[in-house]
Design brief:
By secondary structure, this protein is α+β, with helices and mostly antiparallel strands. The chain has a single domain, classed as HIV-inactivating Protein, Cyanovirin-n. It is 17% helix and 45% strand. The radius of gyration is 19 Å and the shape is elongated. InterPro entries: Cyanovirin-N (IPR011058), Cyanovirin-N_sf (IPR036673). This is Cyanovirin-N domain-containing protein. Pfam families: CVNH (PF08881). Keywords: Signal. It comes from Sistotremastrum suecicum HHB10207 ss-3.
């Protein structure tokens, strides 16, 4: 009986831990990261922040290049793992149009026409236990 009770408690603990993680990690990074520095050079945009892990411990230097999470779909920036938008976009700017966490670029569509397009990076990048990822 004691072994069954311990197994049940362990299972319940794992279930609660599993339910808790998605509520704190894997959401937009701006809710759990601070002191973010977003920069662009040409089409190469990235951010570096201090992000909290699941225990609430801050991790400085969490960094990601947005090309790993953002793609160009027919002239529009969109969230996509291993997106590589930089190959067909140029003139990108961070915190564009006065909006923190937004990048804007001029991107080519399938017909090679240029389009000005913007995207909220918070929709594509998440805090995964103190590290930034897609």
């Amino acid at each position: 009986m004691q072994i069954v009770s311990q197994g049940l408690l362990l299972s319940l603990g794992l279930l609660l831990a599993t339910l808790h993680l998605p509520l704190t990690m894997g959401q937009g990074y701006l809710s759990s990261c601070s002191s973010c520095d977003e920069t662009c050079s040409g089409s190469n945009c990235k951010t570096t922040c201090t992000c909290l892990d699941v225990k609430g411990t801050p991790h400085s230097g969490a960094s990601i290049n947005f090309k790993s999470c953002i793609a160009n779909y027919n002239g529009n920036l969109a969230c996509a793992k291993n997106g590589g938008y930089g190959a067909s976009c140029s003139g990108c700017s961070a915190n564009a149009e006065g909006v923190f966490g937004q990048i804007c670029c001029t991107c080519k569509d399938d017909a090679k026409n240029s389009h000005f397009t913007c995207l909220q990076t918070n929709n594509c990048v998440s805090n995964w236990d103190g590290s930034l990822g897609c």
